[in-house]
Amino acid sequence: MMQLATTRRFARWLVGLFLIVATVPAAPRFADAHGIAGNRFFPGTLSFDDPAVADESILPLFTSSKRPDEGGDVVDNRFSWSLFRLLTLTLGVGIDSGWVHRNWGSAQRSGFDVTNLSIKGTVYRNDLHETLVAAGLSWGIGHSGAQGVGANGPDAIHPGIFFGKGFGDLPDSLAWLRPFGTTGALTLEHPMTGSSINFGVDPLTGQLAPMLTRNVDILHWGLPSNSARFT
User: How many CB atoms lie within 10 A of CB 124?
Assistant: First the structure.
C-alpha cells in the first residue's frame, strides 16, 4: 500500500509537470513541417499515431464503439483528450486521458480512462527518399482509471515505433506508384503486473460485479496506405 501511495504521488507530480510544460508559451521559431519528408505528407489516423513530432492538442475527441461481452454487447461512449508539446524540434512530451460511459444494457457506469504520459522523438528523416521514422515510450499510470469502465489497470509501458515511406523515389518503370505512400506503427502494451480488478457482468448471475482481469502483453500494429505527395 505504501508503494502504491508513493507511485500515485509521483504520478500526480509528473502529470502536473507535464501540464505546466504543455501550457508554457512556445518560443518563436520558423514554421515546422508536420509529418513531411521531402514532398511527402504523412497524416495521422484515428487508430494510431503518425510519425510526426509536433505541438498538438485534441480537446475533445468523441468515439463510440460496441463489442461483444458476457451477457450481451457493451457500448463505450468515450471523450478523449491529449496534449503534446515540443521540447526541441525533434523531441516532445505528451499527456492523454479521457472520460468513458459504459453501457452493458442492464447496467451503466462512467469514469475516467487511464492517464498516459509519453515522450516521442524523430530518429530518422530522409527527404530525398521520403522517409520519416519516430520512436516513442508511454507510461500508463497504474490505477488512474475507473474500475467501472474497465480502466483500473496496473502501471504499463508502451514502447513504439512510427514510420512513413513515400514512393516518390521509385524508378521511371514504376512511376505510376510515385503518388502513393504508406504510414504505419508498431507498439507493445506491457502491463507491469499480471491481474487487476474491474467491473463486468458475472456470467452466472447476470449482475454487474467486480471481476478479476488478467493482464497480458498486447502488440498493436497498423499499416494503411494514406499519404499525400505535393506536386
Answer: 12
Domain range holding 48? 2-26+36-229
Q: Report the half-sphere exposure of 85 (CA within 13 A, side-chain side).
A: 16
> 10 Å Cβ neighbour count for 148?
21
Mean pLDDT of 23-37: 56
Count structural domains, the chain: 1
- 11 vs 149: which has the higher pLDDT: 149
Q: DSSP assignment of 98-149, as one string?
A: EEEEEE-SS-EEEEEPPPEEEEEEEEEEETTTTEEEEEEEEEE-TT-S-GGG
Number of neighbours of residue 9 by Cβ within 10 angstroms: 10
Percent of the chain with pLDDT strictly greater than 90: 45
In a domain, 167, yes or no: yes
Burial 42-68 (b: 16+ CB within 10 A, else e): bebeeebbbbbbbebeeeeeeeeeeee
Q: Measured between alpha carbons, how far is residue 50 from residues 36, 42, 43, 228 in Å?
A: 11, 7, 6, 13
